[in-house]
Amino acid sequence: MNGEQFREYGHQVVDWIADYLDHTRDYPVLSQQKPGELVDRLPLVAPEKGESMDLILDDFRKLIVPGITHWNHPRFFAYFSISASAPGILAEMLCAALNVNGMLWKSSPAATELEQVTLSWLRQWIGLPDEFFGIIYDTASISTMHAIAAAREMADPDIRRRGGTGRLVLYTSEHAHSSVEKGALALGIGQENVRKIGVDAEFRMNPAALQSAVENDKAAGKKPFCVVATVGTTSTSSVDPVPAIADIAEATGMWLHVDGAYGGSAMVVPEYRHYFEAVNRAHSVVVNPHKWLFTPIDVSVLYTREPEILKRAFSLVPEYLKTAEDPRALNYMDYGVQLGRRFRSLKLWFVFRYFGHEGVAHLIRNHVQWAGKLANMIRADPDYEVVAPTPFSLICFRHRASDQHNRDLLEKLNKSGKAFLSHTVLNGRYVLRLAIGNIATTWEDLEETWQLIQVLGKTT
Ligand SMILES: Cc1ncc(COP(=O)(O)O)c(C=O)c1O
Prior knowledge:
Elements: H1 3-22, H2 37-41, H3 53-64, H4 86-98, H5 109-125, E1 133-137, H6 140-155, H7 159-162, E2 168-173, H8 178-186, E3 194-197, H9 207-219, E4 223-230, H10 242-252, E5 255-260, E6 284-287, H11 289-292, E7 300-304, H12 307-314, H13 345-380, E8 384-386, E9 394-399, H14 403-415, E10 422-426, E11 429-435, H15 443-459
Parallel strand pairs: 2-3, 2-4, 4-5, 5-6
Antiparallel strand pairs: 1-7, 6-7, 8-9, 9-11, 10-11
Bound molecules: pyridoxal-5'-phosphate.
């Protein structure tokens, strides 16, 4: 494709994106396709001869778009709603065009240095001390896995050479994200060595139960090595008591990792910092800009006070990757499993500069305030109950009728294409989750979605 053709198709693509972003509302939020529908419509083998861009773009519109669930839709309230803001999309385009691999400083100095700078900016916005080193991975699951690997290295440095002995034990709450257990699985800690500590009535880890689990394990000859607290759990956005957990971690010599994949973004707003007390005592913290900082997926940030331990866990430099030592030339490949690294910091740079601290804080503040207001409206309807506190932008609620009624209500709502919510189970009951996080969501979207839920709740 020559430059002229690229320009022509590039303009077509940009026009399509601009129209799409202006009219995302016109699409059903949840794809209406059936499983296998796209597979059945596509050829079984790849084309032998190249095809025209016109045809490819046409098929993108006709075949791919109908199979899309629109995370960009202002009424996408499922899981943790995310946003691809326009400056982030523009940066993604440039990132693909530059196509650099930021494995070493030398392999693209700007990729490495922009990562250092943007992560230092974000660190200041969320109020973490200067000593925290930042690194970008693709997802929180991978950030957390690396944190657990560093914890393992701190507890048993010989494990790198010898492999595991099955003695190390990891603690987290029964409301922690499944990525914590998956990280332990991947690192050979073993599911049997993951303790899921019970929670209180507000779904927060019970520190007394953590303390006794640690003591039991020590008495049994095990070695407690890592505790993962969550600030903003997946099911309810509850905040574990980090100060008490940090006390136990410090007294036991365990690595404390804080999962702020979703909630951590709220640290950008000074008046919500009280939810994050003692997070600065953690050895590592994960925050996902791709969840609630208006940056297109994927970008997850791990901060750690112990970069040397993280490096020790992973550094392995074959001859062909050796470069001259320079204290200012950071080689991010030393701090993780992957070698190749996308230029993800470019989109953080675009997003942070475009919105500024004030703009990002304003968006998050709106979402949190709207969640509080909507939770009050739900509470005011005698047919519904709000079943968990709403510290951030997630509301957990249910119709007071049966679980089946709630299930049917959710299915009808999602099938309507007008809004998309997800569910969880709390204290054995089926619960609807409405998460606000999309940049285009307005208060009217929330009001109208609630009215629709009320109508469907009556007719279900
Ligand atoms: C609290 C929490 N941690 C971790 C994750 C995993 O995030 P990722 O998809 O970036 O791996 C999620 C996903 O929703 C989450 O809610």
